[in-house]
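ping. complex inputs:
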Amino acid sequence: QITLKESGPTLVKPTQTLTLTCTFSGFSLSTSGVGVGWIRQPPGKALEWLALIYWNDDKRYSPSLKSRLTITKDTSKNQVVLTMTNMDPVDTATYYCAHIIITMVRGVIINNWFDPWGQGTLVTVSS
Amino acid sequence: QSVLTQPPSVSGAPGQRVTISCTGSSSNIGAGYDVHWYQQLPGTAPKLLIYGNSNRPSGVPDRFSGSKSGTSASLAITGLQAEDEADYYCQSYDSSLSEVFGGGTKLTVL
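pong. complex structure:
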């Protein structure tokens, strides 16, 4: 059974850097064809994909947030860490991590979907 | 403004059939990338409902079905039940933006 859980601060001040950790079980990020992604959801609004990392350390970022995001993995601890710099009140949201299922054709990743998701963690940005 | 467009809301009476559309473009759905659907019950994390356009994960009732044609995809729910009241999101890949979600559709069971 795959489970994921997000952890990190619930409150950050504007301009600070947010660091979130996704701790997972039931799979290894050293296994080919595996990934972990981060998605956020502002209160009452839609889902927004942020970043993802694959077993081979390939990393992808949302173009609109790329300059502020860094995603890393610690395979030995079964953790993925997301950092977001220069936090602003508009970044207030529930942040989710999720296991990624991948389909590949001739070694090229052509589709990703997220299953399952962690429970999410609400991060409020306020002074 | 989401890259994938969904109606903000749909509704139906118990037992009825409803559909939720997800409209994209030639850089995502129309480029051949698969569409996936998620159900988000109030106060909970999203749950995978349909993957690869029309495949149901184990445990998802066959009342839920997905399809894709051209630059659009649809989620159909038959035999509507009160427990289906939730937000529904489509997701795909965009050649310029990577992973993208729709704006979400709130399903109300009347």
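Chain B has a mean pLDDT of 96.
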